[in-house]
Amino acid sequence: MIQTWALLVDAYRELNSRKLFWITMLLSLLVVLVFGAFGLNPSGYSFLWFKFDHDFLNSRIIPPTKFYKFVFASIGIPVWLSWVASILALISTAGIIPDFVSGGAIELSLSKPIGRVRLFLTKYFSGLLFVALQVGAFTVACMLVIGIRGKSWEFDLLLAIPVVLCFYSYLFAACALIGILTRSAIAALLLTLLFWIFLFALNTVDQIFVFQRENAAQRIVSSERAEKYHLRIAENQLKALKEVGTPLTDADGRLPSGITDELEAANPLLASTRKNLEEARESQKMWVRWTRVVAGVKTVLPKTQETIGLLERYLLTEEDRNLLSRQEQYKATGTVESEAEDGEPQDDDFRRTQIAAEEADKAFRERPVWWVVGTSLGFEAAVLGIACLIFARRDF
Amino acid sequence: MGHAGSIIVDAAIDVRDVHKTYRGRVHALRGVDLFVKRGEIFGLLGPNGAGKSTLVKILMTVISPSRADGTMLGGPVGHKGTLARVGYLPEHHRFPDYLTGRQVLDFFGAMSGVPASERRKRAAPLLDLVGMSDWAKKRVKSYSKGMRQRIGIAQALMNDPDLVVLDEPTDGVDPVGRRDIRNVLQQLKDQGKTVFLNSHLLSELEMVCDRVAIMVQGKVASQGTIAELTEHGRRYEIDLACESAMAARHFASMVAGPALPPGAEPPLGAIVRVSAAPDVEASIERGTLILRTTDSERIQPVIDEIRRRALTIRAVRQVRPSLEDLFMQAVVDPETGQALAPGAARATKPPRSSTQGNGGAA
Fold first, then answer.
1. Of A383, A189, A203, which is closest to residue A308 (Cα–Cα)?
2. Which of A6, A108, A394 sits opposite B110 (nearest CB)?
3. Between the CA atoms of B59, B62, B67 and B70, what dihedral angle is there, to the nearest 10 degrees?
4. Given a cut of 50, is residue B59 above it in pLDDT?
5. Which of A44, A184, A341, A380 satisfies CB 3.0 to 4.6 Å to A53 for a cystine?
6. Which residues of A touch B161 (CB under 8 A)?
7. In whole angstroms, what is the distance from residue A309 CA to residue A288 CA?
8. Which of B309, B314, B258 is nearest to B289 (CA)?
9. Is residue B350 within 8 angstroms of chain A, CB to CB?
10. CA B141-B146-B152 angle, 5° bins
């Protein structure tokens, strides 16, 4: 315990000596000040002493507490803490492990009565102190802003501390492994950033594929509706044609090219509708297959964005999200008709896209926490295990 | 308990058959046997690449041996718990720049498991001991090399160790500082602590060490007290005035060497026999007669003979080889006269499988 505490105190002293730590802290403070400078009033919103009228962004529609929570969960955490502050944190902490294992420094630590694995893991966790302090300070400051300006003390905001720490620990584990392997702070930083970009790209691909899957599902729904509509018309027409004795086949008794049955012959639009439905089903099958492949790949990798997304999942209710989302605004205007005046279903791309996006979003939100966090922590544990093994067996 | 001859002696370090082969089959240690008694100052010397630092790092668990047998302070080599009783100053050490001298002592004391109250109590006297009290609150980055060495020695003593391992402790230290460090080492010895020194500065070692070991090519070439090691090289040297041809002839006639024509001078360095003391091995070095004996009685007939032949004696002295002589003797191939290659050469064949190692993470 004496040694663990000494390593933590040393980590704090190290951070304290780094200018970047204080620069990041200062920038966090500025972000909180900007956050607090925004205000909502019944006619619109204000920034500092400037007031702006707005039909939607006002305290009559959005209660100030919800507004601040939304900004915190949708911008403060995902944009500031998860990107800007995390990049600064990586720059600041990437050198911790390479410096630790550099010649002249490591001999002293290894010659002490502390096991190598414990030594390495304590050093790793002390490296997370940077982010813990940053996110802790930022979250508490934001909580104060919401408490003072929104007149509501939102203690659930503190959930941001473990969530962001968890997210950063995935990256720092990779950084530690690269640091052990290369003993170079620059290599550790650049390769970790590359890894992070890869994870971001993979998540984007996942989002696109899930959206395409849901879009295909929506196309199936609209195609099925169109098929049903045209089938009804075809049945009526067929009946009418049979009554007047109009032949549906040629002299040889064959149906026209591309037509499979009498119904399609009676209503040629039914054939194209059926074709569309078939294509939509094939498309969905393909996207289901690809989303599974991507999900499989993601299972063994850390899910950085989805981990951060948990915060929004827990801080904002569906009602909050609907209130603030464009989708709700779009729905509220009621400008899109689902059917034309004659009752024919319209394949409205915009609406279908909106619904598919909503469904994709829902699919992401429904992913179990154990999968998002558990498998990511599994990756982290595996990476740290490899790093520990290398550290424990290496001659310095 | 270790062994030194037939006497059972409590050993601080008693290692046998230590091997280390790095990747690429670089065989750094080739079976080192080393014995350090408790309470003595022990010096380890050897040329660059002899394997001294590798041996020290194995003892300090910084690297794992390919094979090692033995104990340090009674615990097996590589046992982490034993290190709580060992103080260590590595060569080319680097303390965190953001720490002050006092914080360095506190941090490494804590890493050795010393409680905070003890650390507070010990820091001031140790800073005083190494003459760094005035610099205790200054950051290490502002220290000179010598000051870093002093702080390094102080941190090695924070856990009140039974064994202090110092790798080049006087590196970069000025003469006054070196004397101070020697005094510190003497104080440690007086307190009953064992000091293990690894140094290139032979004169420093000679001044403070009770026993030394010379490592060459990954093996201990010799070890013992300085008196024991220099016993073989002790001799008497008689400087003669024999510039004139007659004196040279007289001198030559006094000695006899292999295939030496009558009246001819023996070649320099050749082993000769002096007629007055035929059982004493002798040689000639530019007018100096060297008699390899420590017995003053045995050189008296030789002096009488020189006198009888009316040769002038300029000086008679008893000579004991220095540590440097021993060192040079050990590192030079006696056949070729060339310096031996470093021990860290590629092995001709892989060593046997490991029988004991610390695994790096014991």
1. A203
2. A6
3. 20
4. yes
5. A44
6. none
7. 23
8. B314
9. no
10. 75
Q: Give helix A185-244 / helix A85-93 axis angle, nearest 10°.
A: 140
Verify whether the Cβ–Cβ distance A395 to B103 is below 8 Å: no
Least Cα separation, residue A102 to chain B (angstroms): 9
> Per DSSP, what are the bridge partners of residue A339?
A345
**Helix residue ranges per DSSP H, chain A:** 2-17, 19-37, 64-71, 85-93, 96-100, 106-110, 116-127, 129-149, 160-182, 185-244, 262-266, 268-299, 304-315, 318-324, 326-333, 349-365, 369, 375-393
Please tell me the predicted confidence (pLDDT) of residue B362: 26
Token pair in block for residue A353 = 């896209």
Residue with tokens 């503190």: A158
Query: What are the phi and psi torsion angles at A17 (to 5°)?
Result: -85, -10
pLDDT digits (tens, 9 = 90+) for B13-33: 999 999 999 887 788 899 999
Q: Model pTM?
A: 0.79
List helix spans (H) across chain B: 52-59, 101-111, 116-129, 145-156, 175-190, 202-208, 226-231, 245-254, 300-308, 323-331
Rounded mean pLDDT, A149-159: 84
Distance CA A214, CA A216 (A): 5
A151-161 burial by CB neighbour count: b if 16+ within 10 A, else e?
eeebeebebbb
Q: How far apart are the first and last CA of chain B?
A: 23
Does B115 contact A2 at a Cβ distance shorter than 8 Å?
Answer: yes
Using DSSP's 3-state secondary structure scheme, residue B117 falls into helix
CB contact under 8 A, A6 and B82: no
Percent with pLDDT over 90 in chain B = 39
**8 A C-beta contact, residue B130 and residue B120:** no
- Position B352 pLDDT exceeds 70: no
Tokens at residue A73, please? 């969960």
β-partners of residue B45 are: B214
Interface contact flag, B63 A395, Cβ < 8 Å: yes
Alpha-carbon gap, residue B17 to B21, rounded angstroms: 13
Measured from the Cβ of residue B318, the count of other Cβ atoms closer than 10 Å reads: 12
Q: Inspect the interface and report whether the beta carbons of B94 and A104 lie closer than 8 Å.
A: yes
Q: Is B199 on the interface with A (CB under 8 A)?
A: no
- B177: how many CB neighbours lie within 10 A of its CB? 20
Q: Which of A6, A14, A105 is closest, CB to CB, to B111?
A: A6
- Interface residue of B55, B91, B94, B141 to substitute, partner A, most A CBs within 10 Å: B94
* Contact assessment for residue B340 and residue B217, using Cβ atoms and an 8 Å cutoff: yes
Question: Quick check: B111 and A105 CB within 8 A?
Answer: no
Beta bridge partners of A195: none
pLDDT over threshold 80, residue B287: no
Nearest chain A residue to B106, by CA: A6
Pairing status of strand B86-89 against strand B26-37: unpaired
Bridge partners for A302 per DSSP:
none
B113 with A116: Cβ contact below 8 A: no
- The complex scores an ipTM of 0.76
Cβ of A105 and B108 within 8 Å? Answer: no
Answer yes or no: are the C-beta atoms of A95 and A105 closer than 8 Å: no
Give the gap in angstroms from C-alpha B62 to the nearest C-alpha of chain A.
6
Give me the long-range contacts of A185-194 (CB less than 8 A, separation at least 24).
Answer: A185/A94, A185/A95, A185/A98, A185/A99, A186/A94, A188/A94, A188/A95, A188/A97, A188/A98, A189/A90, A189/A91, A189/A94, A189/A95, A192/A90, A192/A94, A193/A87, A193/A90
Strand partners, B316: B238
Chain B nearest CA to A161, separation (Å): 28
Contact A115 B361 (CB under 8 A): yes
